[in-house]
Amino acid sequence: MYRKLVWFAVLYTFFVVVVGATVRLTDAGLGCPDWPGCYGELTPHHAREDIAKAVEEQGGTHGPVSMGKAWKEMFHRYIAGALGLLILGIAVAAWLRRDEPQRSPWLATAIVAVVTLQAALGMWTVTMLLKPVIVTLHLLGGMATLALLAWLALRQERFAARSAAALLLRSWAMLVLLVVIAQIALGGWVSTNYAALACIDFPTCHGEWMPAMDFRHGFQLIRELGMTAAGTHLSYDAITAIHWTHRVGALITALIAGGLAWVLLRKPGCARLGLMLAAALLLQIVIGIGNVVFSLPLWLAAAHNAGAAILLLVTVVINFALAQDSRIEGRGLKIE
Description:
Layout (H helix, E strand, L loop, with lengths): L1 H24 L22 H10 L9 H30 L8 H23 L4 H23 L11 H27 L22 H4 L17 H31 L4 H23 L4 H33 L6
Helix pairs in contact: 1-3, 1-5, 1-10, 3-4, 4-5, 5-6, 5-10, 6-8, 6-10, 8-9, 9-10
């Protein structure tokens, strides 16, 4: 039952991450401008008078507040709150069964701490009016929760050793994991700064390989949405720099992760891991290009976030599998 509960939490977290991305992509992050309720109420239905007043003040539903956006925002809060309770239950179960094999409670407890921080970031996302650095950290917090839960779930399974070169491959796999995390952070920075369509052509940007860019202002972390740290409007060159950097990051990720996939495909017993990585990487690249070519349709933009989560999960699985092999080899055991 514990094993099933942890795996359910992995799938549920994936769902929460995708819903959170959809909230951001539909500009519904300020659908309820307070936290944790909506205009102090439990549901948008109870706050309908306040929402109607806000819609009138902003001159229509095209602004940050509308009944639909409020429900999107609150739905995400509801399911995220349920996830927090689920993870707390897993931690309690881990402590109650801590004497059993593979039931160390410390990782489960660490995930509770991560989710607590994630809740705080969710609150600051609203109260600080979608400040890019906070929104990006909120995305990374969701991905971190997903990755840690996946590692916890994998600890409940049995992994056979797959390769005599596990010690060497493990370092490569760790590098891929770090590169994927960095690329997810860049993707979050693109999304939170609304830079996804800063370059509307591919593979060039504005018809050039090196367009005019402003990296200094584009990557200032402490600033308001759409503004520089000095309080002036963020230039188009700065937005272009953010988008272009994410493209370069995608190329680097493709080379490093693709290389690992190729090696795994050629190693006895590792072909399935290599195939998983190659498929997840190719899917994410195709979706990313499609977002530019088709001008960022909502379903494809949400799929890009889901693809990033899948690529992260696959990388975690590979690192876990190779870590098991390394421990077996380190003990000097013969692997049949």
